[in-house]
């Protein structure tokens, strides 16, 4: 049975195999430590300046990123999210490689994903009634229902780096159900079906700059934001050992061998994840979709 609460840890002592066995670890200031030279909250403010106006960024620099919804409507919040996503792509990849280098030897190769989740969750009242038009932003602007990442495109041995850009409170954070870890669960491909015991939840609270590590195979959900603050989080993913995809996953994404990146062999970095049954299944799915599109 995995421990049911967050445990403080530090990068130099982190063992990803413990995370993959269910441990929930928080590294205080870990995201700030890894996001050099520009801390995430500064990039966030720069995105507010370009997506809304420099004056808006100045106001938030003074009053806190958590006040975004008081100066911006849903369209502007979405524009900030998209802008920050664009600004962070490269930097977030470097951050993840810095994370990999900061770890003690893990005994297995590490594989990094291009996944980047920029998750800005305003108070529910700000998005109420807009869920229909924001479905593509589920988990990014509106709450993600209880799910396990390997139902989608994430390997079963992937670890989530969940980085607090703003303050994360119990009333706007993440919910994890540790007792449901790796239990068979019925779902509709997107969310857990009701009527299944999942045990007591852990409700994540963090300070800006903290880093939470949890296995993507934990049952987890956005805590619908019933509080007064907007919550900003950025996520990245890393695999311990070659990626292994769930046999009933609905998608597949490549994971890159960190040893080959930044070498002349970098084109081969995704090869190991391409040589998986998960990828073969994805090719079959793609072919099926193409056949449907081409049907007269
Ligand atoms: O931040 C959230 O609300 C959802 C996060 C999530 O589902 C993930 O990081 O995989
Ligand atoms: Fe998730």
TrEMBL record:
Record Pfam families: PhyH
Gene3D superfamilies: q2cbj1_9rhob like domain
Keyword Transmembrane helix: no
Domain named Fe2OG dioxygenase: residues: 112-240
Database matches in InterPro entries: Oxoglu/Fe-dep_dioxygenase_dom, Phytyl_CoA_dOase-like
PROSITE patterns: FE2OG_OXY
Record flagged with keyword Oxidoreductase: yes
Keywords (A to Z) from UniProt: Iron, Metal-binding, Oxidoreductase
GO terms, molecular function: 2-oxoglutarate-dependent dioxygenase activity; metal ion binding
Family label: Belongs to the iron/ascorbate-dependent oxidoreductase family.
Descriptive protein name: Fe2OG dioxygenase domain-containing protein
Species of the source: Streptomyces alanosinicus
């Amino acid at each position: 049975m995995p421990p049911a609460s967050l445990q403080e840890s530090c990068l130099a002592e982190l063992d990803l195999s413990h995370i993959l066995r269910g441990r929930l670890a928080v590294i205080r200031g870990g995201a700030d430590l890894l996001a050099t030279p520009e801390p995430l909250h500064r990039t966030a403010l720069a995105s507010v300046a370009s997506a809304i106006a420099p004056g808006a960024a100045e106001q938030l620099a003074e009053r806190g990123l958590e006040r975004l919804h008081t100066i911006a409507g849903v369209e502007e919040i979405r524009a900030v999210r998209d802008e920050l996503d664009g600004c962070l792509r490269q930097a977030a990849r470097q951050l993840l490689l810095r994370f990999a280098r900061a770890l003690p030897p893990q005994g297995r190769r590490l594989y990094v994903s291009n996944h980047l989740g920029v998750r800005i969750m305003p108070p529910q009242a700000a998005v109420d009634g807009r869920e229909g038009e924001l479905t593509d932003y589920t988990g990014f602007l509106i709450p993600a229902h209880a799910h396990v990442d390997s139902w989608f495109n994430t390997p079963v041995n992937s670890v989530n780096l969940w980085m607090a850009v703003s303050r994360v409170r119990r009333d706007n954070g993440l919910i994890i159900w540790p007792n449901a870890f790796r239990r068979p669960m019925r779902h509709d491909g997107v969310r857990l079906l009701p009527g299944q015991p999942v045990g007591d939840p852990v409700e994540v609270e963090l300070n800006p700059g903290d880093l939470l590590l949890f296995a993507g195979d934990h049952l987890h959900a956005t805590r619908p934001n019933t509080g007064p603050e907007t919550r900003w989080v950025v996520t990245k993913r890393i695999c311990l050992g070659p990626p292994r995809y769930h046999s009933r996953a609905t998608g597949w994404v490549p994971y890159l061998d960190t040893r080959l990146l930044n070498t002349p062999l970098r084109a081969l970095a995704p090869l190991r994840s391409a040589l998986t049954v998960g990828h073969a299944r994805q090719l079959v799915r793609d072919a099926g979709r193409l056949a449907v599109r081409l049907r007269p």
